[in-house]
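Table S2 (continued). Query chain:
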Amino acid sequence: MKVLTENRLDYIKSLGAITPEFVIAPFGFSFAGVNNLKIICTKAYAESTARLNDTWTVRSNNQIHAKLAIGKYGIVLGSWNFTQTSTKDKHEIGIHIRKGEYLNEYHKALKYFQRLWARSTPIKKEGKQWVSEKD
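Corresponding output:
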């Protein structure tokens, strides 16, 4: 386990090291070049941004505040939004847990994501816009 503080490079390396597959981020995330993510964000953010990748599966949940990335090799969770501004200009903290170190905790985080995913609203791409399947 590694505690991540204001060192932006540690944060970026940790996200890259886990190979993200599942993400919870209310708004403000940047995963350029990462395909096939499942992301839970707020409806307003999903519908207002063109930054969502066409290969992503997106759901909305306006009750989230958590910031969590789960990947093949571990999890990263913390107080920051997944953006350069958040990791550069603000006082933030997080934790990087490698999958093999705390396997039970990894599975708890994955189950949390799955429960939240099931309670979230699908967002789909229509042309260049992302829209909620339910309004």
